[in-house]
Amino acid sequence: MLEIGLGVLGKASLNSNKSVRMTKSENAEVILEQWKDALQKVAKIKGSTSKNREPDVIEQIIENVRNKVGPLSLEPAEKLVDIESKLKELDVLLELESNDVLFIGIWGMGGIGKTTLAKACYERIRHKFQAESFHDGVREDSKAHGMACVQRKLSNSLMKRNIQDWAAGEAARWRSFLLQKKVLIILDDVDDSIQLRELCEKPAWFGQGSRIIITTRDERLLISHGVEKQFKVPELGKVDALKLFNLRAFPRENPPESYKALSYSFVDYASGLPLALEVLGSFLYGRDLDARSSQLRKLEGDFTLDEKIMKILITGYEGLDPQGREIFLDIACFFKGEDKDRVFEILDSCGFNPGIDIDVLMEKSLTTISDNRVRMHDLLQKKGQTIVRTSFMF
């Protein structure tokens, strides 16, 4: 009934806008008659009465309005390069029409765009849920304040409250809330299985139709938690990488002719990593051709990486055990692009366990195996070489 009534009144408003070419008196009379007619039609529409069902009726109205209004704060499309194709792939995993509780994992190397993708997805579908929360920085929050603090913040966000003390009773109240609601939760930058156990142990915790999206660098976390629906974020292709860099450096998709060759060189340096393209493009914005050329020579001529890029990249390396770190550095310095079997043979002869250790490197998005060759992103390789170079300076 609400939808029909709004439709009738909407038509009346639309028709009134068409009357602007009439005289003021004629216009007023026409508008008055249209609204009288619309209100009479609305008054005759039959609907159901609440009869002590006010909470149910209110909830139904809210759900109808939520579905009609849709997302309110999506970022301009031109700022989110190559986002639509990724969102379409996520749609397949999300199965929004299903009433099942689904866990979806988004994973990939640092700076690849996991958080950006998760935020875009969140803004686009949040209106379809009864409660929603985007919790970024799970790794940093749990490390700095403990899991009880993370649970409290997530609970407050979902339940729209501001509880400062996290007692046993609050945890039980939160669990009861989750079970009764269709919720959307984004857990961004997860790096420990304990975080998943404490925040989203199993689908039985959540109401029908709930979706829990987890972003991480570590595929193994998703596997061990039983998250079968996974999306690995790919590097940007050359065309999209150039577009992103130009939008930050100029800002427009097509730079002046005299800057084109230099733009291609920066894009080659970044090797499809969105973080690097964003940071470099923003740093070069407003600088002249000589300054940009100087920065490129600086990047190519030594082992210096931008501090922000280095901070993101170094996190995955710091999570390795000592043997994993050594193998990572060996690949960065000697084995990138080499035949996998040959690399395994050499590492094995040196007392390493390449089978499991390289598996871990792959799960943490630090290396890949393609065409039976050991691969590593150019900036990860540069980071490894920087670590080795720095260690020999002291």
Describe the structure.
The chain is of the alpha/beta class. The protein folds into 4 domains: 68 residues, no CATH class; 156 residues, P-loop containing nucleotide triphosphate hydrolases (Rossmann fold, 3-Layer(aba) Sandwich), CATH 3.40.50; 64 residues; 81 residues, Orthogonal Bundle (Arc Repressor Mutant, subunit A), CATH 1.10.10. It is 59% helix and 9% strand. Strands 2-3-4-1-5 form a 5-stranded parallel sheet, with helices on both faces. Strands 6-7 form a two-stranded antiparallel sheet. Strand 3, helix 9 and strand 4 form a beta-alpha-beta unit. The protein is globular. The protein starts with a helix and ends with a helix. The N terminus is likely disordered.
Describe what is shown at a glance.
This protein has 394 residues and is of the alpha/beta class. 59% of the residues lie in helices and 9% in strands. Helix 16 crosses helix 19 (378-391).
Strand content: 5-15%
Radius of gyration from CA coordinates: 27 Å
The CATH C-level class name of the largest domain: Alpha Beta
CATH 2nd-level architecture of the largest domain:
3-Layer(aba) Sandwich
CATH superfamily of the largest domain: P-loop containing nucleotide triphosphate hydrolases
Strand order of the largest sheet: 2-3-4-1-5
- Overall form: globular
Tell me the helix content: 55-70%
Count the domains.
4
The topology string of helices and strands comes to HHHHEHEHHHEHEHEHHHHHHHHEEH
Spans of at least 5 consecutive residues whose pLDDT stays below 50 are 1-9, 16-20
- Total helix count? 19
Structural class given helices, strands, pairing?
alpha/beta
